[in-house]
Amino acid sequence: MSRPLIVVMSQQPRWTEELPASGRSGYSFMTCSSLDQLQDVVIRNRPSGVIADLTGTTEGTAKQDQLLEQLRDRRSDLPMAMVTDEVCPEPLKRRALFSGINHLQNPISVQTVMRWLQEKVPSDSLDSDVFLLADRIPEPAVASIESPQSMPPASPSETETLEAVPRESGSVLSGMTRRFETFTPSLKGMLDELAIAAEKDVTLLLIGETGAGKTYLSNLIHEVSPRRNEPFITVACGALPGDLIESELFGHVKGAFTSAHVDKDGKFVAAGRGTILLDEIDVLGPEQQVKLLRVIETGQFEPVGSNKTNVSQARLVVASNLPLEPLVQQGKFRPDLYYRLAMLKFELPPLRRRQPDIKPLAKRFITDKAKKHDVVVHRIEQEFFDSLLTYPWPGNVRELEYAIQRAVIYCRDGVLRASHLPAHILSGVAGPTNDPTVVLDARHSELDSKELGSRLATTEKELIEQALLRNNFNRTRTAKELGVSRVTLYNKMKRYELS
Prior knowledge:
The chain is α/β, with parallel strands linked by helices. The protein folds into 4 domains: 5-120, Response regulator (Rossmann fold), CATH 3.40.50.2300; 154-176 and 356-443, Helicase, Ruva Protein, domain 3 (Orthogonal Bundle), CATH 1.10.8; 185-347, 3-Layer(aba) Sandwich (Rossmann fold), CATH 3.40.50; 447-495, Arc Repressor Mutant, subunit A (Orthogonal Bundle). The protein is built from 19 helices and 19 strands. Strands 2-1-3-4-5 form a 5-stranded parallel sheet, with helices on both faces. A hairpin with a 4-residue loop joins strand 7 (171-174) and strand 8. The relative contact order is 0.09.
C-alpha cells in the first residue's frame, strides 16, 4: 500500500525540507509556497494530511481565513494543522477553533509537528485493517510507571489482554480511511442494505440519537460511493441561526441582506459533485423544507437575493436525532419531504441496544487513547467491561469514547480497572441527555421518578453553567463543547433561567 501523502505549505526550509526528511520513512510529502497553490494541490491529489505554515505568507488575514474556510469546506474530514506566530490574529484563532484545525504556535520544533502528524495520520493506518491491539500500544518507558511485576498476579478469569476482535462474526462496511463494524445481529442487516444504497446516487436518511455515529457513518457512505474523490461537507443545521440556514446552503449575492457585502457560494456549490451531510434536518422551517425538497427532486436552487437558477450535482445524506414521523403529525415537518426521504431510511440504534459492540469498541478506544496519551495497558479487569455493559450510555459511542479516554489517562500500572471509570458509570445512573427517547436502565426503576428527575435536572444545569463559564458565556462555543445545537442550548438556558 502506498504511503500517506502529506501536503506542506510553507516558505521556510525547516518545513519544506527538514519535516519531509524527518518523516521520510512513513510518508510521502508534497510542498507548495502559497495558500492558493495549497488549495489546488489538495483538490488534485487528495492528501491524507495538510500542514499550513502561515508565518511569512503574503496573503492578508482575511484572505488566509477565507482560503482555510474553503479548504475545510471541500475536505471536512482532512487532518489539518496551521502554524502561526505566538501572536495570532483573532480571525485565525476562531477559524481553527470552529473548523477543527489544529493550531500550532511558534516557537515550535519540527519534532512536535511530526508527533502531531504521526498521531493524526499514522503511517501504518492504511496498510492493515486487522491488527493485534497490543501491537499498537507503546512499550513502557524506563521508570515512567510502577512495574507490573510489583503487583500480585491476577487470575485469567479476572483480567483480559488486548487480543484482536474476531473478524468472522462481525459485519463490516469499509471505506478508504474508515470502517464500521458491528457484532449486533439486528444491525448487520441494516449495514448490508446500507452498503448497497451507499454506492448508488440516491439521497439517504439516517436516524439516530446524538453520539450514535451518524456523522462517522455519513463519511463512510461518501467513501464507499463513486464520489469518494470529491469533497465531503457537513452542515450542522441546528448550529445555524434560522435566518442564515438558507444562505449557508444556497449562497447569496451582494446586497441580499444587511451583512451580505460580497457574493458567497453556499454549501451546494462548494460540494461540487461530492456529498453533503445535512445534520439535524428536523430544525429546518417550512420554507426551507420546500426548497430542500426541490433540490432533492430537481437539483435546482437560487442563491438568496438572486433570480439565477443553479443546479446542484452533490449527493445528499440527511440526518436527524429525532424520529420524523411525530414531527409530521405535529405539522412541523412536511409530509411530502418526509415520504421522499423515508424511502431510504436507516435507523442507527443507540449503543445500549448494541451490547455485542460495546466490548470491541472499548478495546479499539483503549488502543487509540493509550497510544495518544503514551500510556501502557497490559491487561483489563473483567469488572471494567462489566461496568461498561451495564451502563445505558445516553451519550452513545461518543460518551463511551470519552469514558475510555478518562480511564486510560488514570491507568498507572498497566492494568485497566473499573475504578478508572467515572463514578456515574460505576453507579449505573444515566447522565443528562437531550434525546427524549433515552430512558434510564430498568434496574433503577425502584428510585422515585420525581426525585431522580430532580437530581438529573440539577446535574444538567450545573454542567451547562460550567460550560458557559469556561466559554465566557459564548453560546456558539458552549453548544459546540456540549455537543448540542444552539437552539437546544438556548432552550435549556431558558428552562434553567441561565440567561
